Amino acid sequence: MTARYLGRKVATLALTLYVTVSFNFLLFHVLPGNPVQMLARSGHFSPAARVQLVRLFGLNHPLFEQYLIYLKNMLHGNLGFSYVYREPVTTVMGGAIGNTLILVGTATVVTIVVGVIVGVIAASRAHSLTDASITVGSLALWSMPDFFTGMILIFLFGVWTHALPVSGIVTSGVTEGLWAHTLDVGRHLILPALTLVLVNAAEFSLITRNTLVDVLVEDYVVTARAKGLSRRRVVWGHAVRNAMLPVITAAGLYVGMILGGAIQVETVFSWPGMGLLIYNSVEQRDYPVLEGCFFLFAIAVIVTNFIADLLYHLLDARVRRT
Amino acid sequence: MSDVNDRNAEGRLSRRRVLALSAATAGAIGTAAALPGAAGAAATKDTLRVGWTSPPDVMNPFTFTTTASNEILWLIYDTLLEYDLDLQPEPSLALKRTTNAAGTVFTYTLRPGVTWHDGKPFTAADVKYTFDVMAQHNLGQAAWSLVDLVSTTVVNPHQVVMTYRRPQAFDPAMVVPIVPQHVWGSMTPSKILTFTNKKPVGTGPFRFTQWVSGQYVQVDRNATWWGKAPAVKTIIWNQFENSDVMVQSLRSGQLDILTEVPPVLFNGLTGAPSVKPVEMESFSFHHIGINVSTNPKSGGNPLLKDQVVRQALGLSLDRAQLVALALAGRGKPGSVQLPPSFGVWQAKIPPGQQYNNNPDKAKKLLDAAGYTMGPSGVRQNKKGEPLSFRLIAIATTTEDVLAGQIFVKAAEAVGIKLTFNTLDANTLNNVVYNAKAPNWDIFIWGWDSATPDPNYLLSVDLTNQIGNNNDVYYSNPAYDRLYNEQATQPNPAKRIPLVHATQKLFYDDCAYLIMWYQSKLQAYRTDTWKGWTPTRGGMVYNFTRDNYLKITPA
Questions:
Q1: pLDDT of residue B3
Q2: Is the ipTM of this complex over 0.95?
Q3: Closest to B215 (Cβ–Cβ): which among A53, A81, A172?
Q4: Structural domains in chain A, sorted by start
Q5: Which of B69, B228, B231, B459 satisfies CB 3.0 to 4.6 Å to B552 for a cystine?
Q6: How far, in Å, are A40, B168, B178, B535 from residue B83 at the CA level?
Q7: How far apart are the C-alpha atoms of B73 and B122, rounded to whole Å?
């Protein structure tokens, strides 16, 4: 990898970030009116108290000056001050990021593993009843909105059998040791994670199945079979490997999408992650928090793309030559 | 105090709108709960578990804006006087209050031997500090009640005197949470505004334990509280993002009481085992607001400045139908600004004088005022200007949208055309409150009272509230005069007729067409805690905290 290539990529990265940050600022600041009015009406604030808040939130400066202050704060890692919680946005977002990573991380790993396994089973029994059931089942689950699947799970496991907690990330009021706490979080994690898996696994099972069906008729698979290898070794050892490329592409896209896409699931299960934070911040018009969240998502996508660019460069000779 | 934030909870400003799934799945899940096996998880004996869908914002008594924070803080901090279960004053940090004949000087004798949660003694200096800092720097929700405060004087460590510029019908001691000077005294006002107060120190019956963000808030009994120790040792308010799941958690025994239940789910709770749904009066109304701004830059249709047109709009509407259709019957037809929960303070309008459900009278009024039927069924004045207006409501407040649709039909029947549009809450807020040039005709919104005293709701439409709360730019010197007269009349017997006259005057002007007073819908489990007293405004989530202090294990 040349220094010039890297330099060009970093410069693009910096420019993209700047544009994103500026757009992010404009998005919330060009809206007419100001959010303090809302707080004042519901908080019974007097006109004088309202003026105080306007000053506190820095909304008394001209727009361009607010923009410069915003940029300066960004450079210092200061994402602003939440209108609602009266705390730095980084503090407000801190806990939510961790909770989302727990949910989305678990769900993503399970989704991909389950999706691929189910896809392989379907492909290796292509056009059988098993294959048809898997395909139809996957499509059915995939086409269900995730909040609806979530509600069904709540009905089955929460209301009907009381097997699992259906709301929150911990049992409220319980303070126990680390191990008990982890188990508690684990129990709360099952239903929201399962919802994400059920809805999204189809994406991977269908891609795997279709790719693998094509691969399984390739010459080298026939050769492998002719060598007398077991069916399992042929499928898993030879065919699946080669069918994985589209799955990896899909996984990359999926990770970027699901960060924000867990909003509905987090809302249904009252899971205090980024999705719920965004939902609540929209409801409460907590613009600095929304700016912070969007900024984080943008960073995630931009950085992921940057890494992907570098990886392509390393892996694919054709990219290197251009 | 801040029932106003029920607008958060009940939906006018930033209502937590559950995703579209609510209605769709409510039925399905309702059935499920009736199935066997729905027995509740074992309740902890001394913990009260409350469920709500509106989260708290901050634990700072000077800056919070939500009813949820208020609910918690009012158990951590004491006021000088509290509201009892009849919403009458009862002694708290003040054992006794005396007032001078004029009603301008209030002397409070403080309870001896009270300590803060951190062990330091509570004194009159704390009271003086709290009142002074609130009044001087406009801090907190109670600041509006302190505008006339001239001085606070510490007579001795157990006596403090407040002097007001004018007689006070409403005693601010009911709503000012007393904070410790040794915690707050060294902060500048701007420091107070940004202080998160993560470990609130009060004198109240409960101590703050923890707040797991987005999940729950926990408080525990204060063993050194001055009052009779409550049976509840721990209170946990659990946050739900979804009313269906919250109601299910009550059915299955994971919660003991809910602060608010949506009407559809409330109706579904009838007959649920060990669950008691309770319908109470609220301190709230929803209204149709008409732009009566006299500002030359107002973009409001000038025809609406004609009282006859506004009265005709009022007469076109059937309030009983609105309650039945938009509220699923859970409320009362609206008339004056004070809901029936205000009891004797609410003015009763005789049927013959009501602007309600009388389209024929509306037509006669319009005919007499020269609004003749024009082409396409829309009346017009002599200049040919049609009675055609814009109507806006908040898209996510379903009952308001429904009401809007009914209103359009009703107005059409008397020859007035309404063009209905829905907006998001923030946009509506900005359109309505654009005081420099309010460019709108008619909106649908609502108000909740900040106190069980008439002052708050009656103050909304004062001339001096234009640019602040006054959402229709109503300005009537006679109204302002009447308001001030009642607000400075400390004798209730003399104040009541003034309060009635204030409401009647505003009612006849028809700048507000109050649609309904919605009910406060709550539900609790009968097998965990007993002794809940239904109260106007709610058993919990109300001006009184006494239900928390008085319930006992079932």
A1: 36
A2: no
A3: A172
A4: 3-31+90-320 (1.10.3720.10), 33-78 (no CATH)
A5: B231
A6: 24, 18, 15, 11
A7: 17
